[in-house]
Amino acid sequence: MRRGIIISPLIIYFILFFVLFKHDSDETFNTELNKFINIEQIDYSIFLMKDIKVGIIDIGFINDHPNLNIVPINDVEMKDEHNIHGTVVAGIISSQKSNVNNFSGIIPGITVYTYSLPYENDISVSALTEGLKVMNEYQMDVINISLATGEESIALKNEIKKAVSQGTVIVASAGNYPNNLNYYPAAYKIPGVISVGAIDREFNLLENTTYNNYIDVWTLGEDVLSLSINPESVKYYSGTSVATPIVTSLVAMLKAKCGKISSSPREIENMLLKGATPIIQSWNGFNVNTRIVDFKNTLLNCEGLL
């Protein structure tokens, strides 16, 4: 089932392609995902000892979800209880076992700072720009944006530049549209802005992923487990929306392992590219180059603990 919003060039296009299946809530960790991204046998608990600030700009946060440690930067009422896009993203990064659900994300228990966008029937580019402006005041280490727009906004670009200039890495969805158009902020050619594409479990490009020359890395975007509207269960989701927080988690790990001072957004991007595995793919009849995220290989790019 594809769920998305495309209204006009002036609004945000949700990079949201969710496939939902009920899953046993006794799942303690996303084992299949860990194998896929090569994170097995890495002691991720060491990353909780570092003061790394992870931000998420999205909609649909369940602030009191028992599996999440959320610090909401603003207070926006959730209008649609079934649209928990932000909760899904947060769960992939930071979910930890609770008394109702044993599911854990990639860095269980890490605090996430959230900015909830106002949402009625659409989200404006100006709302995303304002969200980033507010988030910049908190000087995050990394900000996850699983949203995109076809409009190249100068104001949005300026806030992206400001974020990167103060050391924040921006990780953004490339798009869920099977074309080679540019969607922003992922397509801004700014060092430290990481554009994420999605692949399936066979390492093929996900059917509905966007492909363009601005995509930096690719990772699993098919059947990724995360939290659901029911706190006692988890579900499978697909799309670049769920691929993006996987990369955000790796960026947070790099910041913790390499040190904030020695890991500028440009350097983080270079480490991601160096650690990824290059694969030539077929897309719409053309051979295209992709780089598949590899956690362990990437984390070897700087000194520190594993």
TrEMBL record:
GO BP, one annotated term: proteolysis
Active-site residues annotated for this sequence:
D58 (charge relay system), H85 (charge relay system), S241 (charge relay system)
Q: Which UniProt keywords apply?
A: Hydrolase, Membrane, Protease, Serine protease, Transmembrane, Transmembrane helix
Cite a single Pfam family from the UniProt record. Answer: Peptidase_S8
Kindly list the residue ranges recorded as spanning the membrane. 5-21
Note whether Hydrolase occurs among the keywords: yes
Q: Does the keyword Cytoplasm apply?
A: no
Q: Which superkingdom is the protein from?
A: Bacteria
Q: Which Gene3D superfamilies match?
A: Peptidase S8/S53 domain
GO-annotated molecular function: serine-type endopeptidase activity
Q: Which residues form the Peptidase S8/S53 domain?
A: 50-276
Identify the InterPro entries for this entry: Peptidase_S8/S53_dom, Peptidase_S8/S53_dom_sf, Peptidase_S8_His-AS, Peptidase_S8_subtilisin-like, Peptidase_S8_subtilisin-rel
Q: Which family does it belong to?
A: Belongs to the peptidase S8 family.
Name of this chain's protein: Peptidase S8/S53 domain-containing protein
- Species name: Ureibacillus massiliensis 4400831 = CIP 108448 = CCUG 49529
